[in-house]
Amino acid sequence: MSVLFETSLGDIVIDLETESCPKTCENFLKLCKVYYYNLNAFFNVSKDFLAQAGDPTATGTGGESVWSYLASTSSNKSSNEAKEPRYFTPEFRPKLKHAKRGTVSMAVAPAIDASGKEMQGGCGSQFFITLGDNVDYLDGKHAVFGHVVEGEDTLEKINEVFVDQDSRPYKDIRIRHVIVLDDPFPDPPGLIKPPSSPTRPPDNSTRIAEDEDPLFQLPEEEEERIRREKAAAASALTLEMVGDLPFANVRPPENVLFVCKLNPVTRDEDLELIFSRFGTIMSCQVIRDKKTGDSLQYAFIEFDKRDDAEQAYFKMQNVLVDDRRIWVDFSQSVARMNNQWSNDIKRGKPSRVGEGFGGRADLERTKRYRVDDTARHGSDGYGMVFDVPGHQSKRRKHRSRSRDRGDRTRHESSMSPRDRHREEDRHRERDRDRRRDRSHDRDIQRRR
Questions:
Q1: I want to staple 357 with a disulfide (CB 3.0 to 4.6 A). Which of 122, 230, 363, 444 is the partner?
Q2: Number of neighbouring beta carbons within 10 Å of residue 148
């Protein structure tokens, strides 16, 4: 009768002495059948002496017989626990000795009588495998019930592991799986084989995991990549704390283009007209200086769809605009999101369904960040790098122009036809002078 132990260091096959030690072998086989030993650790390894396992707590004080285990897991737990003791009487056989390496023996727990004298105890679930020959001083103290017939190389690996002062291996050696090759004993009442093996170790080990290599090193490129990712995450968290980023894991919008190397005379309307052939443009803003209001020669163009932005990126790269070769890239700025999101209550319109915050729909669902009204932040776009004293936003300019246009229309309606024609000629001549001055500025810039 044999049992196969699949350990983290290799396989071990154990032949059992079922005729000489029937109760011990039945206890061992039934514990194997209910996966009691699966993921148990070898918690005590002494070089050239023994390797001990079978305690789910990995402390040396746990474990019980299969009959006690079945009683504790049955429905009528209170009545059965009093009937079934934790240990059973060990079966010592004079012909079974600890003479050869690979001898499998049940660990006998000591018992203390009422007077405090130590007496012979019983066997539960703990067992050990000898790692040396002629360990005869264990005879009569622990009950032999089997021998290792395959897996000498595994025993050698176990014998060479590094242990601490308590003989506990620094790196866990675990029984990954147990396969009962032959079981001649009928199952006791109440024994139900679990549908699957456990997936978590029963003990709370803080040692090196059995599938972990403490000496493993990643390639230099991979380590550098991980280091850069950690540094970027730390920097993003710092920027979130100082208020430069609305959220550390924010992602730049994918429908916004960054255009640079612009001609200083290029206006928002010019870029919007040029890029509008690729799709609907939500906003087009040239960033300007805080004091003078002059163009800083870069802009942000927001498309309605990401595909339109991608097409513009590929088609407009290095294109000549106002005698300048522009450079187009996807925006890495989240300034607009920072203007539109806050932790305050929601006052403005919600974002589109599925977009979330910075491309993260989970933040939209949890509503950690909400849209704020544009009046609170003064602008609904990127705006200027710094505020310009007396400078009006584009929307305010548009409104003032509309008001001027309306006033002029009302004024012209009260004029005579001759005066109205003179006024129109005057406006036409002023517009012609403005276009001539703009063309002259472009010629100067071209000569430079």
A1: 363
A2: 20
- Residue 123 has a pLDDT of 92
Q: Could you tell me where the DSSP H helices lie in 356-416?
A: 361-366, 374-377, 394-413
Chain position carrying tokens 């294109």: 319
Task: CATH number of the domain at 60, please.
Answer: 2.40.100.10
Check residue 110 and give its pLDDT: 78
Average pLDDT over residues 166-176: 93
Secondary structure of residue 444 in the 3-state scheme = helix
**For residue 277, what pLDDT is reported?**
92
Q: Give the HSE-up count for residue 241: Cα atoms under 13 Å, Cβ half-sphere.
A: 6
Q: Which domain holds residue 423?
A: 415-447
Is there a single domain that holds both residue 278 and residue 327? Answer: yes
> What pLDDT is stored for residue 310 in this prediction?
93
Ordered alpha helix ranges (H), 289-393? 306-315, 335-340, 361-366, 374-377
- Transcribe 104-141 into DSSP letters: EEEEEEEEE-TTS-EEEEEEEEEEEEE-SS--GGGTTT
| 126 shares a domain with 20 | yes
**What integer best gives the mean pLDDT of the chain?**
80
